[in-house]
Amino acid sequence: MQPTSKELHSQNRSKHISGFLAIFFITVICSLGSCKKDFKPLENADESISNSGSFDKTGISTKPNIILIIGDDVGFEIPNYTGGESYSTPSLNFMASRGIQFNYAFCHPDGFPSRIAAYTGKYNFRNYISWGILPPGGQNISNMLHDAGYATCFVGKWQNGGGDQGVKDAGFDKYRIFLPFTSPSNQYKGRYKSPILYENGDYLPDSITAGRYSEDMNVEYLDTFIDENQNKPFFAVYSMPLIQKPWVPTPDDPEYADWNPKFDEANQDIKYFPSMVKYMDKKIGQIIKHLDAKGLRNNTLIIFTTDNATNIDIYSMWRGELLRGRKNRTTLWGTRIPLVAYWPRGIAPGQSTNTLVDFTDFLPTFANVAKIPVPTNYGTLDGVSFFDNLTGQNGIDRTWSFCQWDNNPNDDKPMIRYINDTIYKLYDEPPLYSRFYNMQVDNLELHPIHANKQTDAEKQIRQNFIDVLQTMHN
To answer: How many CA atoms lie within 13 A of 302 on its CB side?
Structure first.
């Protein structure tokens, strides 16, 4: 019998900038060296958010509420708290300085493969059917929490297929979503101003959406869901359309009033990207403030992360370096993403950790948060809970992260498989397994470490990776 992912981890335990500058600086990208830095919370947090939420791990008598916020195309270099210098993210800075930031969280190189891993707690080889299709069977993170008595809600970008029935089968009671069906799905149409939103089995009429901004309507819906469930635990996924293109004005831009959303794709301009980042952060702050107004902030876990790296047309400053977005790339900057958690009653403030996290880890972590068993009838699960890291307890940390990326299994493009920790990466290319990299000194993966130049420690790490890769099959 093959060992489970959890057992394998136990065995291996060791405990834009503006667009006009892009072309001028593109050659700088090719010369970027080490990206290993010290990560510390920044203090330029949104002080308009009350600081009354206090850390108190004792006396938790009710199941915590959980809100998972997933940004779209928000790379690690975007938030200020990681070292980003091109944008304004005071709400995310607030979460980092009052909660815990994870410096080495890894997604898949594209959005839906990451999302299905997060919702199911499984690597793609176990349940990936095709782009935009959740596997049937009701074995998702929301099913788990719904069965445990949580009220559940999904707002924002769905892109998981099935429409009304698909959302309900995935365990959500309430929803207001964009892209309810797998096909046809033009995700650049009706995304922002005058949005195309689906609710209660039908699209909202133009009389409701005309001139409105999708993220405003999403947060309004989420706030109402919170208001309706103040006396019971709730779980919500807020899958933000921001900051994916088209790059168009937000309501805080003067051009918004006269902007015609029918021409979003033709008239988009990368100059709006910074204001889109700022608006994304603004919406996160509004959610925190609403929870505070309802007296729910202390007992609500809020996690922000993203489905993949920043679009490759975006250039940003990060800790004095110019970085290009690496969406759809398997390199470090294409797969490491921001992950920050805020929970005044459960998380001590001001923490930063290099604990390794990947997208399969949310399901077991949320089971621990909700004080329920990890399901035994969901088949093999690959996630490793990071609940102990959130709450300052001792536990088993993940020692490697795996990815199988194959957006369309029926086409001729070969799948890509690899394994990594916080420093090293090995591609699953037997029999030689020659693409072995130190991501910290070679983040563009230009120079594999040849066997005759590997230290004894590196040889052992590579062999451990090979042993794990050989188990990552159905």
So the answer is: 25
Spatial neighbors of 131 by CB under 8 A, at least 6 apart, are 112, 182, 407, 408
SS3 95: helix
Question: What are the helix and strand counts (H, E) for the chain?
Answer: 15, 16
Residue 410: how many other CB atoms lie within 10 Å: 6
Within its chain, how far is the Cα of 409 from the centroid? 23
As given in the structure block, the two tokens for residue 75 are 């790379």
- Tally Cβ neighbours within 10 Å of residue 207: 6
Average pLDDT of the chain?
Answer: 88
pTM metric for this prediction: 0.89
Model confidence over 427-467: pLDDT tens digits? Answer: 999 999 999 999 999 999 999 999 999 999 999 999 999 99
How big is the chain, counted in residues? 474
- Degrees, nearest 5: CA angle 264-92-326: 55
pLDDT reading at 187 higher than 90: no
| pLDDT tens per residue, range 259-278 | 999 999 999 999 999 999 99
Distance of alpha carbon 42 from alpha carbon 59, whole angstroms? 30
Higher pLDDT, 22 or 71: 71
Tokens of 44: 């330029």
Taking CA atoms, 456 is separated from 236, 445, 451, 462, 469, in Å, by 47, 21, 10, 10, 20
Residue in this structure with the two tokens 């999302």, named with its chain if needed: 115
Residues 197 and 176: beta-carbon distance below 8 Å = yes
Nearest to 296 by CA among 48, 52, 47: 52
Name the residue with tokens 């110019």. 322
For residues 287-307, give the mean pLDDT: 95
Distance set, CA 35 to CA 106, 403, 425 (Å): 15, 21, 15
Which amino acid is located at 88 in the chain?
S
Handedness of CA 72, 76, 77, 78 (dihedral sign): positive
Could you tell me the two tokens for 265?
A: 């794709």
What are 370's two structure tokens?
Answer: 């909700």
Closest CA to 395 of 352, 365, 359, 362: 365
Gap between the Cα atoms of 161 and 179, Å rounded: 8
pLDDT band of residue 360 (cuts 50, 70, 90) is: very high
Cβ(251)–Cβ(261) below 8 Å: no
Tokens 């206090």, located at residue:
54
Residue 236 three-state SS: strand
Residue 257 tokens, joined: 């009033």
How many angstroms separate the CA atoms of 289 and 161, rounded? 32
